UniProtKB/TrEMBL annotation:
Gene3D superfamilies: CBS-domain. It comes from the Bacteria. It holds the Pfam family CBS. The chain crosses the membrane at residues 78-98, 105-123, 129-152, 159-177, 197-221. Keywords: CBS domain, Membrane, Transmembrane, Transmembrane helix. Residues 300-357, 361-416 form the CBS domain. It comes from Paracoccus gahaiensis. This is CBS domain-containing protein.
Length: 416
């Protein structure tokens, strides 16, 4: 209920209202027009009222439910997804599919391809965006849309029936793909095109166009560091052995993970492989919290052996032999960090590298700072992609955290 204090005229409400009690996250910067309670008109200035209105918590909860439910996304990821859709549709439109309807070959762009591009390039980890869901889902929906269009005369009934049947059929085929509803609707709304193409509409343009977008999305994901199709629980790890990646070793089988997804009705939102990764990440975070407020600055190695980029590869190999390191930072004068050289680069080289150290230098290694928490360091090294993380202050290298440093930190905590 609202708490109101009235002024000289007991029949009029205020010329301005300010929220008290639970906050909605905003305040009125300009006076609201007063509303006369007795006459119902606006801008009644017959009183000098001041007061407050308490907003019910239920209203706050309802308004929050209408707000964004997706966490904020980095600008680079938003741009990556948008460029991917541009690349996919431009490639399809220039080389395979015509922007105009082609009733002879059936190779033309349809609106649902835009919706498929959203899933394929923006959320490639979604089960709804996987190749089976996209290709089979769109094709099945097209077949249903054509059948309904050929046998149902009433437009409204034809459209509704086509979409409803497409949803049911794609779920039963384990190929739910939201744009499939638009494919069925497109067929139901295009009796002239369907009269020319018939069931061939499901093959061209639908199946052929979707397959092309999936192929482009697969290549684009590899080029931009994403995984498409999505990871599986039994995917090979970075060492090319049959063991699953450390981050997915949740102690649960693929069947158990799928059972959890079914129990909580998350089959359409998350794959078993990604669920295993989330469980593993949560376990790492919980383990880090048990250790306490440990940061990179408190456990890092400070007496560093570094090389300059012009140092010879032979000198780098000698340092590896002498110090038994698995990684060596590359710095310029003044300890300005440039990159890392890992011993594995020397081992896996097809031929003995010749030249300066920069030919072996890896510049995309994740970095930490003095206040980076232990949980973040664990996540960076859990999958075995790197075995050391440089610690920086600005651009200057001040330390390195290795796996040995992490193990020592946990050992000290266990003994204490």
């Amino acid at each position: 209920m609202s708490a109101v204090r009235r002024g000289t005229d007991a029949k009029c409400f205020p010329a301005s209202v300010r929220s008290s009690g639970p906050s909605l996250g905003f305040r009125f910067l300009r006076p609201l027009p007063s509303i006369c309670s007795c006459l119902g008109h606006i801008d009644c200035q017959s009183c000098n009222w001041t007061g407050s209105i308490t907003v019910p918590p239920s209203l706050i909860s309802a308004l929050r439910a209408l707000g964004p439910s997706v966490a904020s996304v980095p600008l680079t990821e938003a741009v990556r997804a948008g460029i991917g859709a541009v690349v996919g549709l431009v490639f399809a439109g220039l080389f395979v599919l015509s922007p105009a309807i082609d009733s002879q070959l059936g190779l033309y762009l349809i609106a649902p391809f835009g919706a498929s591009s959203v899933l394929l390039f923006a959320v490639p980890n979604s089960p709804l965006a996987q190749p089976w869901a996209a290709i089979v889902g769109n094709t099945v929906a097209a077949l249903i849309g054509v059948a309904v269009c050929l046998h149902i005369a009433d437009p409204a009934l034809r459209i509704a029936l086509a979409v409803g049947l497409a949803i049911t059929a794609t779920i039963l085929c384990r190929a739910l793909h939201p744009p499939a509803g638009a494919v069925a609707m497109t067929a139901a709304m295009s009796p002239e095109a369907i009269a020319d193409l018939g069931y061939r509409f499901a093959l061209t343009p639908v199946a052929a166009g979707t397959l092309l977008l999936v192929l482009v999305a697969t290549l684009y994901a590899r080029l931009t560091g994403r995984h498409y199709p999505m990871r599986q629980v039994d995917d090979r790890n970075a060492n090319h052995t049959v063991d699953s990646s450390p981050s997915t070793r949740a102690g649960l089988s693929a069947a158990q993970l799928n059972t959890l997804l079914e129990r909580y009705r998350q089959n359409f939102n998350l794959g078993a492989g990604d669920l295993a990764r989330l469980v593993g990440a949560a376990e790492l975070q919980a383990a880090a919290q048990q250790v306490g407020p440990v940061t990179a600055g408190s456990i890092m190695s400070r007496d560093l052996v570094t090389v300059e980029p012009d140092k010879s590869v032979q000198d780098v190999a000698a340092l590896f032999r002498r110090h038994r390191f698995t990684s060596i930072p590359v710095t310029s004068k003044g300890q300005r960090y440039l990159g890392m050289i890992f011993q594995i680069h020397l081992i896996t080289a097809d031929t003995v590298p010749i030249g300066p150290a920069r030919v072996l230098m890896e510049t995309s290694v994740p970095v930490a700072f003095m206040d980076t928490p232990l949980g973040t360091l664990l996540a960076l090294m859990a999958d075995g992609e790197v075995d050391a993380v440089p610690v920086l202050t600005g651009q200057q290298l001040v330390g390195v955290v290795t796996r040995t440093d992490l193990i020592s930190a946990f050992a000290r905590h266990s003994m204490s």
